[in-house]
Amino acid sequence: MQKRILGQNLSVSAIGYGAMGLSHAYGTAVEKNEAIKIIRTAFEQGYTLFDTAALYVGQYADGATAINEALVGEAIKPFRDQIVLATKGGAEFHDSKLVIDGSPEGLRKSVENSLRQLDVETIDLYYQHMPDPNVAPEVVADLMGQLIKEGKIKHWGISNASVDYIERADDVTKVTAVQDRFSMLARRKSERLFPILKKRQIGFVAYSPLASGFLTNQDRSKIDQHNKLDFRGNMHQFTEVGTDEAQAISSLVTQLADEKQASPAQISLAWVLKQQPWIVPIPGTSKEKRLIENADAVNIQLSDDEIKQMNRLLDKVNYDQFD
């Protein structure tokens, strides 16, 4: 697969693999051996960026706890030194409530826990999962600099952060990547970050680049609105109103897919890749066919005119709902 550079020197596959859905947020966790097989197949297909987080904990069909970091750590053992392992910390669920702890003590504990769960000696790219309003970015960045010197992490990044937060953190310890939601249905929030990311040579990792599967053109009626383990039931695009609002985009994606003998997912990923040369999308899937399909998106060519046509249509979307 083609490569892209995050930050100044972190080389990764142009499309990464987001492991979240194997254990968390999309219903019951994928059976462990099957999930490991999917991750290893991703490596065989050329994926070299694998993304997880301490927050990604779910439930297997038998009721056992599914810990995404532990799963990813076991799966990548045969090729650990050939990939970039990314995880996120500083946020966990306690008694079903989200607890954010960006204090140096909390983040250091989070890093140590992730090293143990992943069963690795160092983490290639470690993100603060989300800013803590009670802790200044300079404090977080200083700790990350210490962790880099100690060899516990190699690069650091920030997820779900503002321009001001990124700038202040980057002034203390160089930020390699910023991660946020970005797709044709979620543009505006992340696009506001792009000028400063370009200026400071910070890469951008796009999660949910397929709008949580909406842009794959799969049967959306399969979403169980009452399944508390599947967070898509709360997403605007999976409501009747949201589906109607995004219909024009879905139709254009399907049209371009037919013209280029591609899938809607490949068109959607190709659009993301076209936006900036330092953007790396991390779609997730539990299907081997989709895994291969997503990897092939790097070969889909969208012309400048096609991008303009798509963007004109996208400009009409009410992003306040989808972001």
Automatic annotation (TrEMBL):
InterPro entries according to UniProt: Aldo-Keto_reductase, NAD(P)_OxRdtase_dom_sf, NADP_OxRdtase_dom
Keyword Oxidoreductase attributed: yes
GO MF, one example: oxidoreductase activity
Query: Which UniProt keywords are present, listed alphabetically?
Result: Oxidoreductase
Keyword Oxidoreductase on entry: yes
Q: Which ranges carry the NADP-dependent oxidoreductase domain?
A: 14-313
Q: Check the record and name the PANTHER family matching this protein.
A: AFLATOXIN B1 ALDEHYDE REDUCTASE, ALDO-KETO REDUCTASE
Q: What is this protein called?
A: Aldo/keto reductase
Q: Which organism is it from?
A: Lactiplantibacillus pentosus (Lactobacillus pentosus)
Q: What is the lineage of its organism?
A: Bacteria, Bacillati, Bacillota, Bacilli, Lactobacillales
